[in-house]
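so my prof wants the structure for this chain in the tokens format not the other one, which i didnt know existed until like an hour ago. anyway here's the sequence
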Amino acid sequence: MPRMLDVSEDVRAEIGDAEADRLLVGDSTPGSYDCTSCRTPGDSEQERTSTVLFVGEETAVLAFAHATCIPSQVVQVAEDQLQGAVRSITGSEPENPEGLMPDQAVLGITSGLVLIEDDLRPALVVEPTGPIARPGTDGSGGDEFLQLLLEQGFRSTPDLSELPAVLPGWSVLLAMGQLHAVLQPGSGGGTPVAWWQAHQPLQVTEGWRTAANKAQTVLVFAAPAGSIGKQPREDLLRDALEKAAVNGLLVSAAMPLAGT
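here's what i got, hopefully its the right format
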């Protein structure tokens, strides 16, 4: 039975016309699936469905998502991250991805407008839910989250008086007015890969989106677990950022906006 399936040109180019056509007529498409974005059930016979292709250096995995959650697209991932993507697609938890400590810390992101140099700037604040270990270690070295980011080009931020420097190769992906990912350079300078990716696209305020589209740049601040917390208002978020900065617990970078 034909499926209500969206196959983007990028996905078609990767899987070939023959496989794309088989998907569209239902020969190799499951009727029901778990959305790779929001992880709730979907039915390609009853609702518009997107094909999402996760591509590593040597392997690729095809997944499905509600078209209302995410458009059909190719998502580049590092080969060593692809098994994590597979576990995400199947709904099981990854085994210690990205060098996280055994308690499965993950990166949390909060969006807000931050006043810097007399202008409200669109910002993202990244804070893990627990300590982050260096990849390939058992975590005995303690929380190395900030050190890892400094090695990637983020800069220590002692205060919020100046705009962070642009971090080459990194960007913030906004699609259909929702936050999808923070992208970093691929290995060897190749196609960017997701450093952080939303399981379900995150809503941002109209004011944040307008400011981001105007500046075409997003400020990304990062602090260790427990430094910022979930702040209900932007003035409280700024206060928490300033406190982290004074205590030497804040790094930052400016990143171009990808998408709209």
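also thought this was worth mentioning. Residues 84-104 have pLDDT under 50 and may be disordered.
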